[in-house]
Amino acid sequence: MISGKQPRPLTPRQRAWRRFRNNTPAVVSAVFLLTMLLLALAVPVLSGHGAAQGSDTQFAPPDAAHWWGTDVHGRDVLTRVFAGARLSFLVGGVGAAVSLVIGVCWGMVAGYVGGRVDGAMMRFVDILYSLPSVVFVIVLITTLEDHLKGILNRVSPQSAGAARLLFLFVGLGAVSWLTMARIVRGQVLSLRTRPFVLASRALGASDARILFRHILPNVAGVVIVYLTLTVPSIILYESFLSYLGLGIQPPQASLGSLIAEGAAQINPIRTYWWLIVFPGGVLASALLALNLLGDGLRDALDPRSG
Amino acid sequence: MLVKHNAPGIFPGAFRFRTLLAAALLMWTAGCRPAPVPDLVIHNTSEPETVDPQILTGQPDGRIGASLFEGLTRFNPETGRAMPGLAERWEISPDGRTYTFHLRPGLAFSTGEPIAAADVVWSWNRAVDPATAADYAGFFFYVRNGKAINTSAAAPSVRPPLGIRALDPLTVEVELENPTPFFPDLCGMRIMAVVPRFAIERYGDQWVRHDPVPCSGPYQLVSWRPNDRIRLRKNPHYWDVEHVRSDTIDVLSGDSPSTALNLFLTGKIDFIVDKTVIPIELADLLRRRPEFHPFNYLGNYFIRFNCTRKPFDDPRVRRAFGLVIDKRRLVERITRMGERPADALVPPGTEGYVGARGLGRNALDAATPAAYEEAMARNVEEARRWLAEAGFPGGHGFPRFSYMFNSGGGSGARMHEQIGVEMQEMLRRHLGIEFDLRPVEYKTYLSEMSRLNFDMIRGSWIGDYNDPTTFLDLFLADNGNNRTGWKNARYDELMAGAAATAAPEKRFDLLREAETLLVRDEVPIIPICYYVGFFAFDPERVGGIYANMTDEHPFWAIYRKGALPR
Amino acid sequence: MLRRILLLIPLTWVIVTLAFFLVRVAPGGPFDRERKPASPQVEAALRQKYHLDETPFSQYLRFLGLKWEARPDGSWHRAEGGLLVGDFGLSLKYRNHSVTDIILQGLPVSLVLGWLAFGFAIGTGIPIGFATAIRKGGWADAAGSMAAILMVCVPGFVIGPILVLVAGLKLGWFPVGLWGSPMHAVLPMITLGLYFSGRVARLMREGMVQALQSEFIRTARAKGLGEFSVLLRHAFRLAVMPVLSYSGPMLADLLTGSFVVENIFQIPGIGVFMVNASLSRDYPMVVGLVLLYAVLLLVLNLVVDVAYGFLDPRVKHG
Lengths: 306, 566, 318
Description:
CATH topology of the domain at 106-311 in chain C: MetI-like fold
CATH superfamily of the domain at 106-311 in chain C: MetI-like
Distance between the termini of chain C: 10 Å
CATH architecture of the domain at 106-311 in chain C: Orthogonal Bundle
CATH superfamily of the largest domain in chain B: Dipeptide-binding Protein, Domain 3
Number of helices of chain C: 13
Number of strands of chain C: 2
Structural class of chain C: mainly alpha
Helix content of chain C: 55-70%
Largest interface: A-C, 63 and 64 residues
Oligomer: heterotrimer
Strand content of chain B: 15-25%
Shape of chain B: globular
Shape of chain C: flat
């Protein structure tokens, strides 16, 4: 080896990947989240108990037959938690996607274009934000659910139960992107007058190019962090809607509804701790991993880090 | 307020923060009035919607209403039955259709104005007038022309007069449509109370918001903060003022059962009056403690079928459903307050009445668990036969339907869901039938129920007075609370026959026959359990509270024992 | 600026109008109960009394205060009340109270609790975010970030009962519920503020990390400014921007009370009404509360936008 070859310069994408790989907490989190997802898919199938299947052993503490104990109907908590996680991850994912696509685009355009367009777009956000979301969801479900159910019934009777879920997504999606839009707009507002933006405009770059090549990478950090904050709030908002009878249909469960059920057990006289500790632990650990992953992603994608 | 380690300058905001804090504290003190400690604190569940005794409908409202306003009779705290109120005695005509009430001399409102027979007449006429829009005006349908007036769209001048008149300032004569043995109980209802004509004519609907409110009952209204508390003080002009045990009472409003329990355990509340704020999760433990008192009362939990929809228009299907529901399991595992599983509509304990034997009674009569299992197994066999006969052998071809219930009311609503989940299991296992649970928020539930837009729906009923008709009237063809679409000419005929009968034995026989038709043969409803009341007070510290069938616990009888410091 | 302020009026009007009609589309009405009224005539009288028998548009005019009615003698007069004279009408659920009455009684409580929770969220969130950002990658960052994330994902209906159980019942430090002395506010403040504190900490950390990397700070450092000055005077100002855009909606949420916290601690604020009014179809109440919330939100967002200009000289208002 006489002449060491100069390493080829890495593309930004490769550099990002390398940075991400070197971030141990982020990699561990990613693996953990994947495991959770796999468990959510596998546990309800493999546990040997149905998520909705009751038994005579009501409120059994964790033992060999039911690793995480049983609930009021004698249902296996382990199975229910992961069946619930499946649904909650889905709800959180859809909400985050809506928030990402609509919220980020809305905020970027408003902040970048500015002026009257900005004013109009942000006032629209204000209007949606001010309307009572509970009424919105009630109206949505009661006026449209029966129709949608009818249509789905014709397609396949099995999918009719999904009607409620669909509305849940629409309802949650409708409120999840508003704050995101505000935050992104605020960032863009201050970015658009930065030297690098002005420079590339002077060089004749198109608006779309400036937005996506220069501004988007710079707001990515806040977007990712806020996104990881949106997921828990959507998951918990779902449990609130379910509590009001506007969410999922029992005997289905979500992590939020399981936690709400468990929270009712926190009292000075008798606590069935497994009803709150296990669903709460799964939610908290999954969200923790999600946030650490988010941190890793933002560091990796940050255009300014070396 | 001294912060020693705080070097000045590093936290330039500290001073401003302190000003802010001071401002916040100031707002605080402005928000709270300095209130003397009350003699008694009662948790009354939800915030009352109104305290106008003739308009109010809810139980929490009623407890306040009954403390502020009294009618010809009032309720005995021990038995829950009528005892003399503003009227000291009354006579009944031999045909049972005319009551003559004698008012106590010297009655007055809390503001000092006298109460005379004409006030009773005016109050009743106000309540029955449809323009007053009193939901409970139905109690006046027993009085002559009550129904005619309340259902009339005509001008007041051309309506027939209500069957009540003042013979002299101390005597009121009431004419009834039918002999009504429970009429004195009705006279104790809130809507029959005496209200101040002078205040209502002056202030209109909002008269209870004009201080001071002239009250005819044992207490007067001192203050009212929505969702916080109502303060009551003894009415000095009340005729029985010496037996009003507590001078001031704070009545708290709140919807959270665990909060109510915590406040009770820390001694902030003397009396939790209603089971809706008892945590159902702990009911099985609590009812063994000396401070928690379950008792039977007139209320039940049942499931309505929509008898206008296929396949529930077929009584055989309804019977099959009714037979396979394991009610003992439901009360032991879910409701857990010590409810009795139900096979009929009228709760046992209704005075003098022996109820019908409904579907599945054989199992409920079983003395041992083994006998119960055996009887249930026989019932399941019978149910399968009914279902096969109706065209769904083994549940094949049974259309998918849903069970609707209200959600979102704390632990009570969670119970509805849990009962639904258990029933899903029972119907799947025994009949091979699958169905969906459909939780909806309360107003949607009510609206769907009255529009008959459901397959099967949760129902319950609280009796108003101690007589079977308070339950059985429900399923008359033209009763607005029927809500099953079920109409039965024979049932209506039996009920009408009972209404026209004065002899108690004969009357109860007719009622029992009607009830049997309802719960054994036609089954438009599946009775689940008879409610228990459940209240909390420490018998060492608080007295004057008694269990009774009508769930009446007048505040005037309740007192804190001794002068324990809080 | 003046235009923005003037714009508040039509904007509020749009919001209130939407809410007015939206809530009337929901099934059921304020007077639907478990029991039917005694007769159809009673039901009709009830609807007439509260003008629910009129067309939605006529109800809307009445709500605005633009409804003209004929007197029995044939002359015309404006129907009493209405938004234009500051009257929302009576609550249809709590029929002895006007909407204004309920809001005026509950709002002070919610304001006090909201400001306290806001103070708590800012007071704990910003230091945590600041500290985790300047020690990015270290153990302090890990611990602080973990704490912040836990605050966000443990809901109030879990943290509240736990606080009550531990600090209220077991230790006996604080009352378990009700409202009155400052001690009563401690547990509700924490329950309400913790979630927002976690969000603020995360946003602050992100803002600070970004600010420290910006050319602006590099310049400041290059100029040889002290680290303290760089961090506090320069980086901090940039870093609070995301927190600032979030604090408008956050404060609007906090000041209008919280259903969960008011329920857990039995506090007489207006947060419970925010949810219950919708559920009980208390039309005037819903509209009144929406108006309150909208005005608060719009004004706070306006304040935030103005504050942006002060903190970040590069933002210009067109």
